[in-house]
Amino acid sequence: MRLVYFAWVRERIGVADETVELPAGIATVGDLVAWLKTRGEGYDHAFENPAVVRAAIDRQHVKPDASLIGAREVAFFPPMTGG
Amino acid sequence: MTVRVQTAPFDADAETAALTAGRTDIGAVVSFTGLCRGDDGLVAMTLDCYVEMAEAEIGRLVETARARWPLEGVTVIHRHGRLLPGDPIVLVAVASRHRRAAFAAAEFLMDYLKTRAPFWKQEERAGGTAWVEATAADDAAAARWAPER
């Protein structure tokens, strides 16, 4: 699965994108966040307040309880400030 | 319907004129241009963007607007990259037979662009850079259009 990060989520994690093999038992976006938090200081910092970080699966906004089944690209980013 | 996400500048007048070129059935065009404002010693603003999703998400917002109001044409252009004070950032132009639909759809699109299109502003000042925080006011502006979302 490809993961992509934007804005301060990317800065804290230290990479713009990566490809990961998910361990068994990771079914939702929320599960993925919990697992990512264990992968190092940068991840822990990026997700220190998981409620703030937004997610998208295959370029559509999703909630933390969204299923990862069939997901190819999952994105994490702060609340948007465009316009 | 035109949706573009780009680093290059845009010509708001030309884009608006293109919406009505050769048409005699359009009675109203509303266009909004968002500019980079040079508050408090701002040197530049860099917009980070998830380009592939931005185009898809703006396209979905345009489809939602078209389902809600009778629109004859919509153009949305959003820039990313490093912009200077005074530079145009975003254009929303909407054409319809009557003014109410054009006014409403343009405002709807801007409100939702701010809260749903994947762009992030980073301000650059003499002392360094800082990410702009999302505001509750922007969330409230988008929420006015509920129950659409």
UniProtKB/TrEMBL annotation, chain A:
<dbReference type="InterPro" id="IPR016155">
    <property type="entry name" value="Mopterin_synth/thiamin_S_b"/>
</dbReference>
<dbReference type="InterPro" id="IPR003749">
    <property type="entry name" value="ThiS/MoaD-like"/>
</dbReference>
<dbReference type="InterPro" id="IPR012675">
    <property type="entry name" value="Beta-grasp_dom_sf"/>
</dbReference>
<dbReference type="Pfam" id="PF02597">
    <property type="entry name" value="ThiS"/>
</dbReference>
<protein>
    <submittedName>
        <fullName>Molybdopterin converting factor subunit 1</fullName>
    </submittedName>
</protein>
Automatic annotation (TrEMBL), chain B:
<comment type="function">
    <text>Converts molybdopterin precursor Z into molybdopterin. This requires the incorporation of two sulfur atoms into precursor Z to generate a dithiolene group. The sulfur is provided by MoaD.</text>
</comment>
<dbReference type="InterPro" id="IPR036563">
    <property type="entry name" value="MoaE_sf"/>
</dbReference>
<comment type="pathway">
    <text>Cofactor biosynthesis; molybdopterin biosynthesis.</text>
</comment>
<comment type="similarity">
    <text>Belongs to the MoaE family.</text>
</comment>
<dbReference type="GO" id="GO:0006777">
    <property type="term" value="P:Mo-molybdopterin cofactor biosynthetic process"/>
</dbReference>
<keyword id="KW-0501">Molybdenum cofactor biosynthesis</keyword>
<dbReference type="GO" id="GO:0030366">
    <property type="term" value="F:molybdopterin synthase activity"/>
</dbReference>
<dbReference type="Pfam" id="PF02391">
    <property type="entry name" value="MoaE"/>
</dbReference>
<dbReference type="InterPro" id="IPR003448">
    <property type="entry name" value="Mopterin_biosynth_MoaE"/>
</dbReference>
<comment type="subunit">
    <text>Heterotetramer of 2 MoaD subunits and 2 MoaE subunits. Also stable as homodimer. The enzyme changes between these two forms during catalysis.</text>
</comment>
<protein>
    <recommendedName>
        <fullName>Molybdopterin synthase catalytic subunit</fullName>
        <ecNumber>2.8.1.12</ecNumber>
    </recommendedName>
</protein>
